[in-house]
Amino acid sequence: MKTLVTGATGFIGFHTARRLRETGHEVRVLVRDLGKAARVLSPIGIDKDAIVCGDMTDGDCVDRALEGCDSVVHAAADVSVTSGRKDFSANLRGTETVIGRASERALYTIFVSSVITIFNYKEPMTADSPLVYGKTHYGRSKTECDAWVRERQATGAAISIVYPPGVVGPDDPGFSESVKAYRSFLRGTLKSEGGNQLVDARDLAQLFVRMLEENTSGRVIAAGHYFDWDQFTAMLEEATGARVSRISAPGFALRAAARTMDVVGRLTRKTMPMTGEGIEIATRFPEMHDSPEIAKLGVAWRPARETISDLFRWYVDAGKLPARVVPALAQVDR
Q1: Coil, helix or strand for 212?
Q2: Which pLDDT does position 71 carry in this prediction?
Q3: What are residue 31's DSSP bridge partners?
């Protein structure tokens, strides 16, 4: 099986490409930066002949990347829930181009969607939940993409949609927001409503490989593990040995404060400790549950404690965190 992976120099795409290679499959990648691709992908056995340089919105580049492939994992996306950025129009254009061209070739395709604001947080979330247009700019862009892909599914196109929550774990070549956030959790978490749901990037990649091997159809929620903020903070302290402070306030107060900080940040051009988008997600996120396909495919999520320990150990090894702030890991490594 030869699979095109978009976003392979990003977190999800990198782990997907690596897992495909580890399980004996061929990989082609579509990237925007050849230098970064060589640095990130060469160590996992993806050489220059398997790399196509171009943007996901460029039809000619996408056609070159698709040539000779049997399947596609579309993981590329502009992502941000903390910067206040507003223009995510490339997400829909890229999805239309990559998945549209793949569908024309009748290639089985996995679209990596999101659950951030695309479902109604007041209702139980299932893979068939109706879409909503939420308050976050990134979330609205993912709703637009998801709606377009669902329309293609309705016409019989061989596309599966996967809905992961926050994706974390070690070995993030781009140091993405979801991974970076866990380092900042050492400075403080919340004592409020909502919670944190996470899935390990390595396990998510294994799910994609199994879906590609079995041509799994439909929509799949890859829920992973859910923790309310009390549970999450306790696990974080246990895994790292750090003492974590907490912001104690009801969700509505945190959301109001964060929206005020958005205004101050725009006026002063300074980075604020909270953003309206980030707090909206943190205080409203409901618990998700795995779709039945997860167990049917034989995919099991590793313990969240293992993911957190591996992540913070990688922080230290990559020079992104001093070892002294995670004493529990330093003791284990002796």
Answers
A1: helix
A2: 98
A3: 53
Locate 144 and state its tokens: 């637009």
pLDDT in tens, 115-136: 867 887 777 788 888 998 866 6
Task: Give CA torsion, residues 232, 307, 23, 296, to 10 deg.
Answer: -30
Q: Of 73, 167, 151, 65, whose CA–CA distance to 114 is shortest? A: 167
pTM score: 0.92
Please, what's the largest Cα pairwise distance for the chain? 57
Can you state the angle between helices 34-41 and 11-22, rounded to 10 degrees? 50
Amino acid letter, residue 145: C
Q: Could you please report the per-residue DSSP string of 57-113?
A: T-HHHHHHHHTT-SEEEE------SSS-----HHHHHHHHHHHHHHHHTT-EEEEE-
Pairing status of strand 71-74 against strand 51-53: unpaired
The 3-state DSSP class for residue 185 equals: helix
The pLDDT assigned to 86 comes to 62
The C-alpha atoms of residue 327 and residue 334 are separated, in whole angstroms, by 11
Instruction: Give residue-wise pLDDT tens across range 169-197.
Output: 999 998 888 899 899 999 999 999 999 99
The DSSP result for 256-301, as a single string, is: HHHHHHHHHHHHHT---S--HHHHHHHHHPPP----HHHHHTT--P
Distance in angstroms (rounded) separating the CA atoms of residues 261 and 34: 38
Given a contact cutoff of 8 angstroms between Cβ atoms, the answer to whether 27 and 2 are in contact is yes
Query: Which amino acid does the sequence have at 267?
Result: L
